[in-house]
Specification:
Blueprint: E1 4-8, H1 13-29, E2 32-39, H2 56-81, E3 85-91, H3 95-106, E4 110-114, H4 120-126, H5 129-136, E5 141-144
Parallel strand pairs: 1-2, 1-4, 2-3, 4-5
């Protein structure tokens, strides 16, 4: 059975459901989890509403604070369930690559993630990060809908 589950999360409602289910799976199988938040770097020209109207400095501070809150929440849930958890925040242009690389670097044997997250218009234009993880990962992926 799986012993180390990577759980990418963006704090969206569906990602929270995936996190909760991954924690339950880890508890049942005596696995540990790594909660991952991927922060996209600031772009001067962007379709991401979180980046419109912000300076690079304010965006980065806001994005890091948001990611750290999400990860603290994940760690708290895991602790309450008696599941070992570490958290990782990375900055990456392509979240799906960061998810796969983090899973490989950390020795995860399962990636558990939501079928979609807070990607907005980017998801329409660029495609689903979950779909890209499914397509490119050599590690099994469990998708929560």
């Amino acid at each position: 059975m799986f012993k180390h589950i990577l759980v990418p999360t963006d704090g969206s409602p569906l990602a929270t459901i995936a996190l909760d289910n991954a924690i339950a799976l880890a508890r049942e199988t005596d696995a540990r989890i790594t909660a991952l938040s991927v922060v996209e770097p600031f772009h001067t020209f962007s379709l991401n509403p979180d980046q419109l109207g912000e300076t690079q400095k304010s965006y980065e501070a806001h994005a890091v604070h948001w990611a750290d809150d999400i990860l603290a929440n994940a760690a708290g849930k895991a602790l309450a369930a008696g599941v070992r958890c570490e958290t990782v925040r990375v900055v990456a242009e392509e979240p799906y690559r960061a998810i796969i690389e983090t899973a490989m670097d950390r020795g995860a044997d399962l990636i558990a993630m939501a079928s979609h997250g807070r990607r907005g218009l980017d998801a329409v234009l660029l495609g689903s990060q979950t779909q890209k993880v499914l397509t490119h990962s050599g590690i099994p992926v469990l998708v929560y809908r």
